[in-house]
Amino acid sequence: MTFRDWQQLSPAEAARELHQRVRSRLSLAQQRATIAALPSEADLAQSFSSAQRSLPLSGVPYFLKDLFPVAGQPMFAGSTFLPEVLPAPAQDSALVRTLRTAGAVFAGRAQMHEFAYGITGENPHYGDCEHPRFPGRTTGGSSSGSAALVAAGIVPLAMGSDTGGSVRLPAAFCGLFGFRLTPRDALVSDAFPLAPSYDTAGWFTANATDMKAAIGALIGLSSDARIPRGCYLEMPGLDAEVARACQSASGQLAAPADAATRTELLAAFAPALETYHTIVADEAWAVHRGWAERFRARYDPAVWQRLNRVQALTAAQRESARRHTTALRQTWAQYFWTHDFLVLPASPSPALTKAECTLENRNRILTLTSLATIGGLPVLTLPVPLPSGLTTGLQIILPAQRSAVVPWALENFTTG
Q: DSSP E strands: which ranges in 6-111?
């Protein structure tokens, strides 16, 4: 169901439809793995009734990643203990307030990779979030529940966050449209942080029309009569079917980068993975250090290991990360003097199985996604089908979140 379809339902019908979809489309285990909180049907009907009908997202239900505050509701961020160290939020997050102003209806909180410190959607506390159409494969994370709930057709819109790819990867794995904003933006300012220098808000839809409507309602759209200029950068390390599909799909938007541009960008991008890991390790530890040791046994062991990596960082690594951040941002600035966007693959493979959720594959993913992260850049993700029936995606990396490239790409790109 599209935004428009939901808007045609009465409040009682919409609440009933949403609950019925949860029951019929998700197993009990996957309900627990994807949904952190779901209002009763009666409460949901009241929320639909309260939405002003003249607003752009009026009557559109959405799930919210459980690191954005909701007044009076405990926030777990995928953990078991966060409410023990942080009180229940006194007011709604800026993102929730913006959605309400646009008429959208809060339908519940979505589960996530613990503290957003992971990209696979695995969670030992609530269960791994599985691809709704390919059980046994991950949605990707950390906005795993949000992506699953849109991919399963439970809601047409879900909010996530993206630090190192946590909207882009689930969008690619689940065949969704995704949009990532920029760090320090008002819509992420009061979310529970992973790494504040990199954290962004974002969201998922199942189709281009709904994505355009969501962007227009939440941040606004720009237009430009000219055709934007971009190029596709072929990246090493992709599965063969992903490389072929991305190269073919990117042709709808841009030609491949010329040899000089490709050489320059790949050289500038080479240190990104190590830079990303260093900055996130430092900033994540700064968030958690006040309680990390006290709750050590209650962290996901993999998340704890990532947090604890800060102990091994050296002054030389930190200085190198600072230098490479400056250099990479200069490269992006120079690129955008002559181009309006850059197209990159969003994933090196289709959705992973549990056995494939390895450090090697995590680094393969971050090699693609950390580039825009370090640049502090917004990204539109477009789904790309694969011959196997699985999907990957394209990252459309932009110099500004209200770029006129966004509506142009959504109107000119086809997924079939």
A: 35-37, 61-65, 105-110
Q: Name the nearest CA neighbour of 354 among 138, 33, 145, 142.
A: 138
Q: How many Å apart are CA 213 and CA 161, to the nearest integer?
A: 19
Distances from the Cα of 318 to the Cαs of 268, 306, 325, in angstroms?
18, 16, 11
Per-residue confidence band for 146, with pLDDT thresholds at 50, 70 and 90: very high
The verdict on whether 212 is a catalytic residue reads: no
pLDDT tens digits for 395-410? 999 999 999 999 999 9
Report the Cα–Cα distance between both ends of the chain, in Å, rounded.
19
Verify whether residue 54 is a known catalytic residue. no
Residue pair 302/118 in contact by the 8 Å Cβ criterion: yes
24 is catalytic: no
Radius of gyration of the chain (CA): 20
Q: Which of 47, 58, 79, 142 is catalytic?
A: 142
* Residue in 143, 166, 250, 347 annotated catalytic: 166
pLDDT digits (tens, 9 = 90+) for 313-355: 999 999 999 999 999 999 999 999 999 999 999 999 999 999 9
Q: Which CATH number fits domain 1-416: 2.130.10.10, 3.90.1300.10, 3.40.350.10, 3.30.70.120?
A: 3.90.1300.10
How far is residue 369's CA from residue 166's CA, in Å, rounded to a whole number?
9
Q: H helices within 226-271, ranges in order?
A: 240-250, 259-269
Name the token pair of 314.
């050296």
CA distances from 376 to 164, 184, 197, 198 (A): 11, 9, 8, 7
